[in-house]
Protein 1
Amino acid sequence: MSLTEKVIPEATIEAVARSLYKETQYYGFRKIDYLRFANQLLDMTMRNGDEDRQLKAEPIVYHSLQSLRMPLEGNDIHIREFESSKDRALLEKWISDRNGRYFLLSSITAKTLNIDEVIESEQNILGMITLTDATPIGMMAFLDYDRGQHKGELRKLIGEVQYRGRGFAKGATQLWIRYGISSLGLNQIYLHTLDTNFRNIRLNEELGFKVEGILRNECYFDGKYHDILRMALFIE
């Protein structure tokens, strides 16, 4: 392998392996089945490796950004300031969704954060994602924004189900990161994600985040424990 090729972090590989292992346990895999499975993966890699390398996106690099102010304007989306009087009801609706609830899930206690405390705290910076016609579709946030240490925890949520999986999350997150660096002075942006959500892990890696470690059995919900990946983006 060329020295210039990106090395996938060991924690990411382990997270994907653990996710696949859980799936295979459901189907009752035996040792011989794992060998057959590994051979299938190797065969797919040999057949599709060249095509995968051509399609693979390089991580985004952030540097010397011009100061941004809300509303932030992207190609397909805008991000405006969160207005509690008209946006709180939407946030309540979005976090009632199975995926949306993670937006207010504390990475420390595994308990849902109080929505009013999140909205009212001066340590939290909230933004509403809208389409270019001002239709609200989701939210971005920096929680526990530490001005002295120049760091904050990134949260993202596409609340309207019909707009998920269409690239809006990536565009909004990239815009939000640029805002955090240029206007809030962030040097470190971190986030937490379920070890089984490797689509989100891959998106975060494309945005420049790297896995720092795995918090074992960190959260208990839906009747079982979940590992949490901590990922971080450092700005030189």
Protein 2
Amino acid sequence: PEETRVVVDGMEIPVLYHVGALRSVVHGGFLRTLILVPGGYGAEYGRGLGGLVRMTTRAPPVERYQGEADVGVLDASFEAGAAMGDGGGVLAAGRIGYLDRILGGAPSSDARRLFPLPRYHDFQSKVVLPLRDDEKIEVTFLNSSDASSLSNPSASPSSFARQDRNQSFSRLGVRYVRTFADGGGASLISFVGWDQTQRQEVAGLGSANESIASTVLGLRGEYGAPLSSRLNLVVGFDGIVQLADVQHSK
């Protein structure tokens, strides 16, 4: 899993699903396409030996206002958008899970040990600002948070075991997109992100804590043009700088 790359509009994010794989970290109504390349993807993407998941976000609605809300057993979600004229607009979506709050202490200790109840939420927003007929700027924000707990209750302190894990990330990107009359196009995105993972393990009378806080800076550009009916030219660059603060304690 650590060798699979997940990219949203050129921004690399650490995970595709919330804990337990019940929901994706990006609302389905926020997406236009999702492409899965199981392995052996092209040179335009790197830093991974496994698969590639490419997601592109959809454009804001053509109508003035649009939205929907959904309330289910696992979570509640919404999607809303507004048009601003000339192809511009605003789009937002989000989800919050509450299964752990509904069930509370209902599951048995054996069930809690094998199947942790996840707590999660995510939010996405996008603003599209048209410059000319063939140019636009997109500002995108992504946020996701997860928490889960595994426990093995025991009357004896020496046999007690518990694992708590919290994981979150945020991305803020500014993307310039231009299309050309010959069918080619160019894009440039610069983004900054914040990742945080905290884990605590308690086994018997001992405990261990791990905290990883990272700042991610990314820049990606691409230009493509048709050379003939069977040949296309694509050139680009892609780079990421990640600064991490790792702390361990026992």
Protein 3
Amino acid sequence: FYIGGTFTDGTLVDSTTGQVTTSKVLSTPGDPALGFIAAVHKLLELDEGIEPETIEHVVHATTVATNAIIEGNTAKAAFITTEGFRDMLEIARQIRPSLYDLQFEKPKPLVPRQLCFEVPERLDSKGEVITPLDETALAGVVELIADSGVEAVAVCLLHSYRNPEHENRVGEALRSKIPGLTISLSSDIVPEFREYLRASTTVINASVSPIVSKYLESIGEKLVKSGVSSELLVMQSNGGVYPAEAAADSPVFMVESGPAAGVVAAAALGTALGHPNVISFDMGGTTAKASLILNGQPNVTKDYSVGSGARSGTGAFGGASGYPIRTPVVDLVEIGAGGGSIAWVDSGGALRV
């Protein structure tokens, strides 16, 4: 099942006979889960011989996480980092997608400055402790976060990819004081160097986790009510799948799951037809995506971003115009011109879309 901006598509494959049944319904932006379950019911009606309980796998690709970021509907989140690095999200990077655009503005951080907090601690690049974690200061920060009413917290301390001990202690302090809070530790999400990229990835994970969690929980409940008891699997940005429970904890790995699903399908179809080298083209109602597939395998990169004007691939300045993410993703080009786009020639003879 794939939920796009315009339509929600479902495909039922009989693993014994190979018969394929498809369904298409209008997406329901107010509650995407309604469109999803409508596609399920339509498939079951089209193939009357299939009982819901006999379905072996349910695989879902969605743009729910991406849409939450683009539309600015992320959860209220806080950010904790090493003392002296509170402005990490504000400063971001020097890279500009439009070098000569004097009006260019970086996207606003997903966490406002008043919800960014520092804790005294410091590790060196080998993970050795230079400054021990100040437990008293940490307790004060936890109190401030408890009073702020946030739904999620992202924690990114310097060099935690080499030694996660301080981040783990911050996480424990938050959990003991604020039960039910969504906590994302950079040492769990993306344990690698370059603190801003690590922080951005962790913040995105934290800010969309409550939304994705509720969405997947709603889908799971609706599937059970419909008699479908098989495990719900979610597409990852790299073309693989993982359980819905893991997707709820680490939704940053499914940000580009929708476009990735189309590339994986094109690669499988091309290989089956004896053409392992193909260009995939996937146009929905809102956007059009293209990807190059060599020897039956799409290229996977870790250099992309999501958000306003975001692009993927090494040729897009690391997707500098959006929020950078350092998780594996199928390398593709995406433009905002889909089936719902209207083209015309204006009075000056120029093509407009």
Protein 4
Amino acid sequence: FLSMSLIDLRHWHNEPYLIGGLLLLAWSYALATGPFRERLGLATAVPRWRQISYYGSLILFYMAVGSPFDQLGERFLFSAHMAQHVILIYPCAVMWLLGWPAPLIDGIIERMGRAQFFGWFLTRPVVAGILYVMVQSLWHIPELYDLALQDRFVHVMEHLSFFATAIFFWWPVVTRSTRWPPLRLPAQMIYLFAIAVAFTPLFAFIAFSSEVLYPTYEFAPRLIEGFSPMDDQLLAGAIMKLGNVVVTVAGFTIIFRLWYRQSEQVNATTD
């Protein structure tokens, strides 16, 4: 039995920083792929699927953090909050990156001046992977995680850091930039596997804890009859691990297919 009486379905966030930030990202992309496209080195129009991917990532981002689902995760269920994070670090980040064709990315990077090295450094696999795992792990420290649930500004910073570091993490796999290049296909599979292993301690910390880690969820009103805070915490850990496993396996499958096709093309050329 799920009690929806405690959730205000009209509770949609319309803070200026959220709406304004998303509109700014959409407007900047529209300029980069439209009037400024040729100046940035892109001779042809951006494929429609890339545009859908980019704008879709912004819509999905808002649905995760701006819809009543945010209230569900912020006040009632740890598992809902974990699902929110999974949305931000997987589909949102990947779709955002897929929206940028390589020539357009390289054209923007060329105009970054001295900041190029900083961006190159953050997108190197070792740096991006460590930063990604560290940010995820630190935010799940009970005191810091619960602070984010109590303070709106801290909560916003949590979500932004998750999304930003997820973009750095996915860069060596998704992008085809020549300025900040991705890993070779076989190395991408090793990279994804290494990050999945690095997440294991965090998953174990949440899923196998003998006590409720976050007081907000321990004392929150129960939305589901018979669904205890420990059940909620175990489900949150499962969502984290399952999301990581599904994404890693999907990544392996796609990368292996690309690697196989690449090998076939090389063999055909040599023959």
